[in-house]
Amino acid sequence: MKQIQWFPGHMAKARREITEKLKMIDVVFELVDARVPLSSRNPMIDEIVEHKPRLILLNKSDMADPAVTKQWEVYFSEKGLRTVTVNSKTGQGLNRISDIAKDLMKDKIDKMIEKGIKPRAVRGLILGIPNVGKSTLINRLANKKIAKTGDRPGITQRQQWIKVGKEIELLDTPGILWPKFEDQTTGYRLAVTGAIKDEILDFGDIAFFAVQYLKEMYPDKLMERYNLEDTSAPPLEVFEEIGRKRGCLIKGGEIDYEKAAEIILRDLRSEKLGPLSFERPSDF
Ligand code: G4P
Questions:
Q1: Nearest to 123 by CA among 21, 19, 44
Q2: 132 near 32, Cβ under 8 Å?
Q3: Residue among 42, 131, 134 whose CB has most ligand 1 atoms within 8 A, to mutate
Q4: I want to staple 112 with a disulfide (CB 3.0 to 4.6 A). Which of 9, 75, 104, 117 is the partner?
Q5: Which residue minimizes the CA distance to atom 10 of ligand 1?
């Protein structure tokens, strides 16, 4: 997984680049991870996008808990933000984007028609933090493989418009924004979903955070996957029990914490516990 360190200079540069791109476009497609829709949003997104019409795409919805994703749809809608739940890998949900984008542009299109101007295609830009699925989405919409953009602001590349159906044109280079680093919980949520590299936070801590969360929100899935009798013990004991069940032991029968953490995170990221969400509107 690629990773950049976001220093203030990088953030400023990324922001400048996006502001440039925004001048060319009508609608912003803000890509977020459906499993952590708020943690995977850039903290300054509202300020950066300003008044451009915006559509939030809840991506990787195949990996998220469908009931929780529904709650997020309501949450955003109550804030006046349109969302579409998508899976960029399979293309599920993407056929709705065009109509909603046109709808968001209705006033502008109506004005053009009033003035006797033939409305041109709606121009869109995909924005999101690294690893949220921007390239996958662009490739899916373009129906071909577009060269992957480096996750680094400042690498200039030629920009082209990709036709998506008859009425949308998409900039083929997405806008890359930095994730939230606001608090530890946000960091852990992003790490569990693989949005930030494991080296930034301690691997064992990330897995422990995951066990704590699963114990509370998805105890049945935890019990089923690791053959646990129950999950009422304190999180560390549950963690240790998982380690024991998985044979993560070192000499003397002690738990090999690192190995257990590795297994838990690998299982989560390869969806061995099924689709899960790591934050819900009621957390906020
Ligand atoms: P980025 O441009 O925003 O940095 O993200 P990118 O498209 O590279 O996607 C990051 C990872 O997320 C990729 O997996 C990609 O396949 C996966 N992904 C993107 N959208 C979806 C989705 O809707 N559902 C699921 N399940 N996965 C999605 P990878 O493991 O890094 O690469 P690969 O194994 O697909 O080659």
A1: 21
A2: yes
A3: 131
A4: 117
A5: 131
Is pTM beyond 0.90? Reply is yes
Please tell me the chain's helix, strand, coil percentages from 3-state DSSP, rounded to the nearest 5.
45, 15, 40
What is the separation, in whole angstroms, between the first and last Cα of the chain? 29
DSSP per residue, 127-146: EE-TTSSHHHHHHHHHTSPP
Provide the 10 A C-beta neighbour count for residue 115: 7
Which residue from 61, 89, 136 has its CB within 8 A of the most atoms of ligand 1, so it is best to mutate? 136
pLDDT digits (tens, 9 = 90+) for 116-167: 998 888 999 999 999 999 999 999 998 866 655 555 555 556 678 998 888 8
